[in-house]
Amino acid sequence: PIEVKKICCIGAGYVGGPTCAVIPHIQVTIVDLNQQRIDAWNSDELPIYEPGLDEVVKKARGKNLFFSTDVDKGIEEADLIFVSVNTPTKKSGIGAGFAADLKFLQLATRRIAEVAKSSKIVVEKSTVPCRTADAMRTILEANSKPGCHFDILSNPEFLAEGTAIEDLFAPDRVLIGSLQTQQGLDACAALAGVYANWVPRERILTVGLWSSELSKLAANAMLAQRISSVNALSAICEATGANIDEVAYAVGKDTRMGSKFLKASVGFGGSCFQKDILNLVYLSESLHLPEVAKYWRAVVEMNEYQKSRFANKVVDTLFNTITGKKIAILGWAFKKDTGDTRESPAITLANHFLTEKARINIYDPQVSKDQIWLDLTDYGDIPAEPIKPHVTISQSVEEACHNAEAIVICTEWDEFKTLDWQKIYDNCPRPAFVFDGRLILDRKALTDIGFKVTSIGTGDRL
Ligand code: NAD
Ligand code: UDX
Question: Any idea which positions bind NAD(+) (predicted)?
Fold first, then answer.
């Protein structure tokens, strides 16, 4: 089998950084056009927060792990190249709002073809629509130098943020898709050989190229579908007196179902679920499968409904107006143990509260003030001046909750589970309202203190 001696990864983001940092022995250079990001990867303040990442990077950096902006050198030296660039939802043109924007992927592919002086294995690690490898092959073949041959593999990444390092060290599976030609299978064996350094062979699955590409969209769509299903049921619970945690527990005990990914919430966020489902919707439509498209679109629609339902509940409960009222938002990240805020439900809620002219006070243990402002202004698309008087960003829970008429839990950070709620209550006007968007609080204990507690999936009916 071909032995991979040098790896290059194009894209030093949430996926490229952690996935390459766990590769032992083999020399890996992660390249990116973003100088600031590369500088951060080479410093003590890594550009992303992920438990365990600092330790892994510090151990390997300068030994077998390198970060650089010299994309061309990275490509030239490597025999295997991961393409791990962003593939966001298209904002304009055909498929706007649904299709994946593949410009970064295509630019990276073109660069590989232009720069490579020897044959390479090119690995699609970004999440892409089914049959993207075909387009990559055409670009590579049309631009390559004589004698250079490219094999394309699909190797989607399944890590979840917040647990990326554990997921990468002990993955449920590694998926590699290749053409079923001898060359394709040889390239597949070479990449499998890289993973075999730390992943048991039986967890390395090898399939066809198109199955691999589609499996990634399928996995994310089905995971998100579970959340939308449980969130839809949470609305029924609130109206009937059933309790969503109890329902999810009972349903999840069925071994055919399993208990994971059944936690009701204010809605799912993150850079992947919505984007990948919309991508699947677009794919279904372009394949003339409108019923299939409609089915998956409903998963995203239910998520939008859950977020607005929760926001409306806050307004209703505060006697139909929150104008001028102070609302504490606890948590800004899309889930705990990450500083990532992409598609975070907290952003939707904050926008809703600002439209209602409330004053919001935000606290998150990992998200910077600058990032919160980027999110509130949609990266500069919304003017900051008009909302500035209504927004405060706090350094502690106590500060955010001081004098708040409502406290809204948006992220399930562990530190929110052990707060001194009596002390917080003593500093709130009456009635003091808490809205638990993550089902992490002890409802009875808070009610005993005097709070009026509203949680997702539990109503007031006995
Ligand atoms: P990201 O935005 O954090 O990182 C992508 C990086 O690629 C950026 O730093 C950008 O500067 C760089 N880049 C873009 N074009 C480039 C080019 N031509 N040359 C060099 N560098 C370039 O994105 P991410 O979250 O790491 O996601 C990357 C891909 O992985 C996406 O397709 C995503 O869907 C997929 N994915 C993400 C996750 C996740 O949890 N974030 C999980 C699985 C899969
Ligand atoms: C997801 C997939 O899990 C991962 O396999 C893929 O590679 C990338 O997309 P990520 O978005 O990082 O990972 O986090 P995930 O744990 O899936 O959470 C996504 C969102 O769903 C978060 O907002 C989370 O709070 C929410 N969620 C998750 C729920 O509301 N309920 C649950 O039961 C699980």
Answer: 11-16, 32, 37, 85-89, 126-127, 161, 272-275, 342
d(CA 366, CA 338): 7
228 annotated to a ligand binding site: no
Question: CA nearest 278: which of 94, 96, 156, 136?
Answer: 96
CATH class of segment(s) 6-199: alpha beta
Instruction: Tell how far CA 123 is from the center of its chain.
Output: 21
CA–centroid distance, 8 to ligand 1, in Å, is 14
> Is ligand 2 within 6 A of the CB of residue 343?
no
All CATH 3.40.50.720 domain ranges of the chain, comma separated, are: 6-199, 247-455
Residue identified by tokens 């593999």 is 153
- ipTM associated with this complex: 0.98
pLDDT single digits (tens) 282-306: 999 999 999 999 999 999 999 999 9
Answer whether 279 contacts ligand 1 (Cβ < 6 A).
no
Residues 235-262 have pLDDT tens digits of 999 999 999 999 999 999 999 999 999 9
Provide the pairing of β-strand 326-330 with 359-363.
Answer: parallel
Q: Does domain 247-455 have CATH number 3.40.50.300?
A: no
38 lines ligand 2 (CB under 6 A): no
Q: Which residues are marked as active site?
A: 272
Cβ pair 350, 360 in contact under 8 A = yes
Q: Is the peptide bond before 431 cis (omega within 30 degrees of 0)?
A: yes
pTM: 0.97
